[in-house]
């Protein structure tokens, strides 16, 4: 059982446009509304592939009620925690060449009592968990070491914790020894202060995150694929997507696939890439099911030992 915690969930609106021009009126080709937030997406991807998962989700206001209604309609197993502030709405503009521009609201602050209620909900849900996935940004004024405290608490209970976050929350979590972190390229650069321009840079940055305390680093590199660094090896893989539709939530699908496949070695990396590629080919943040993933797995995923000289796409 995989429990996910999304402290800052969202209603995600993805708007498909030909291309973006600042200051212009742009007529959208299509729009999608999805339940969002990184942990929520991990649970949605797991559910779509019949892997047991429970999502812990604080929610507030009309947006929060809409979020919970959308998750219920998908059949997500969840523990909901009512809070006073409204759940945020995030917007993604997906251009026809696959470029996605995201505007994420900060979310609303949780009171100390609300934070305690969420922590209690996670501890309760995790009593039968193998993994707890702590994913996404922290709402305003939530202490940056919250994920670190969860890592320590669950380590004592023998439960593995995966952390997918950015900024101070990621830096604070590392010394608490998370079993897994899933930074993207920007987060790798931010956490290490390194410029990531080659695969070798990404591997070196992932090694530094391990030196700071993370046991396994699964670093996603956008269209360049992903690199996995753990005790028994370093692997690289990619899964080109012929017609990228929306990359929103691709990293979450990747994390879900990696955990579903056992979170270890080249095979799990290949599965993670198949889930991510399948997600990129779908609109909005729709999570791929077995048929979407099987189509990708058959012919497109390539994994290998990591060639440090491989250049990454500029600015990716
Ligand atoms: N344009 C693309 N073409 C092919 N694959 C892609 C593309 N963008 C992303 N992917 C796949 O999705 C994975 C995750 O993407 P990315 O590194 O952007 O994660 P992320 O920033 O965590 O995403 P999100 O926060 O939206 O979930 C990549 O490792 C790659 O396998
Ligand atoms: O603002 P955060 O918490 O960093 O990211 C939130 C978010 O961008 O992540 C998901 C995609 O990974 C979306 O569903 C959601 O809008």
From TrEMBL:
<dbReference type="InterPro" id="IPR017583">
    <property type="entry name" value="Tagatose/fructose_Pkinase"/>
</dbReference>
<keyword id="KW-0067">ATP-binding</keyword>
<dbReference type="InterPro" id="IPR002173">
    <property type="entry name" value="Carboh/pur_kinase_PfkB_CS"/>
</dbReference>
<keyword id="KW-0418">Kinase</keyword>
<keyword id="KW-0547">Nucleotide-binding</keyword>
<dbReference type="GO" id="GO:0016052">
    <property type="term" value="P:carbohydrate catabolic process"/>
</dbReference>
<dbReference type="GO" id="GO:0044281">
    <property type="term" value="P:small molecule metabolic process"/>
</dbReference>
<dbReference type="InterPro" id="IPR022463">
    <property type="entry name" value="1-PFruKinase"/>
</dbReference>
<comment type="similarity">
    <text>Belongs to the carbohydrate kinase PfkB family.</text>
</comment>
<dbReference type="GO" id="GO:0005829">
    <property type="term" value="C:cytosol"/>
</dbReference>
<keyword id="KW-0808">Transferase</keyword>
<protein>
    <recommendedName>
        <fullName>1-phosphofructokinase</fullName>
        <ecNumber>2.7.1.56</ecNumber>
    </recommendedName>
</protein>
<dbReference type="Pfam" id="PF00294">
    <property type="entry name" value="PfkB"/>
</dbReference>
<dbReference type="GO" id="GO:0008662">
    <property type="term" value="F:1-phosphofructokinase activity"/>
</dbReference>
<dbReference type="GO" id="GO:0005524">
    <property type="term" value="F:ATP binding"/>
</dbReference>
<dbReference type="InterPro" id="IPR011611">
    <property type="entry name" value="PfkB_dom"/>
</dbReference>
<dbReference type="InterPro" id="IPR029056">
    <property type="entry name" value="Ribokinase-like"/>
</dbReference>
<feature type="domain" description="Carbohydrate kinase PfkB">
    <location>
        <begin position="7"/>
        <end position="281"/>
    </location>
</feature>
<comment type="function">
    <text>Catalyzes the ATP-dependent phosphorylation of fructose-l-phosphate to fructose-l,6-bisphosphate.</text>
</comment>
């Amino acid at each position: 059982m995989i429990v996910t915690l999304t402290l800052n969930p969202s209603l995600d609106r993805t708007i498909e446009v030909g291309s973006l021009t600042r200051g212009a009126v742009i007529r959208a080709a299509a729009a999608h509304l999805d339940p969002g937030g990184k942990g929520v997406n991990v649970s949605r991807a797991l559910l779509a592939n019949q892997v047991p998962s429970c999502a812990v989700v604080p929610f507030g206001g009309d947006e929060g009620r809409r979020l919970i209604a959308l998750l219920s309609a998908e059949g997500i197993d969840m523990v909901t925690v009512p809070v006073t502030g409204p759940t945020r709405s995030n917007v993604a503009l997906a251009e026809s060449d696959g470029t996605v521009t995201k505007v994420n609201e900060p979310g609303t602050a949780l009171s100390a009592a609300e934070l305690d209620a969420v922590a209690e909900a996670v501890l309760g849900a995790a009593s039968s968990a193998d993994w707890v996935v702590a994913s996404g940004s922290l709402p305003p004024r939530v202490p940056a070491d919250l994920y670190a405290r969860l890592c320590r608490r669950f380590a004592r209970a023998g439960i593995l914790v995966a952390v997918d976050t950015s900024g101070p929350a990621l830096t604070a979590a590392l010394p608490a020894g998370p079993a897994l972190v899933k930074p993207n390229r920007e987060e790798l650069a931010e956490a290490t202060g390194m410029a990531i321009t080659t695969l070798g840079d990404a591997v070196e940055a992932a090694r530094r995150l391990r030196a700071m305390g993370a046991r396994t680093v699964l670093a996603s590199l956008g269209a360049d694929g992903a690199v996995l660094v753990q005790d028994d090896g370093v692997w690289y893989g990619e899964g080109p997507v012929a017609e990228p539709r929306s990359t929103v939530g691709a990293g979450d699908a990747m994390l879900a696939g990696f955990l579903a496949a056992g979170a270890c070695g080249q095979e799990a990396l290949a599965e993670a890439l198949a889930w991510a590629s399948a997600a990129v080919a779908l609109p909005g943040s729709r999570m791929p099911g077995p048929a979407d993933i099987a189509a990708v797995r058959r012919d497109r995923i390539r994994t290998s030992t990591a060639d440090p000289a491989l250049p990454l796409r500029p600015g990716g």
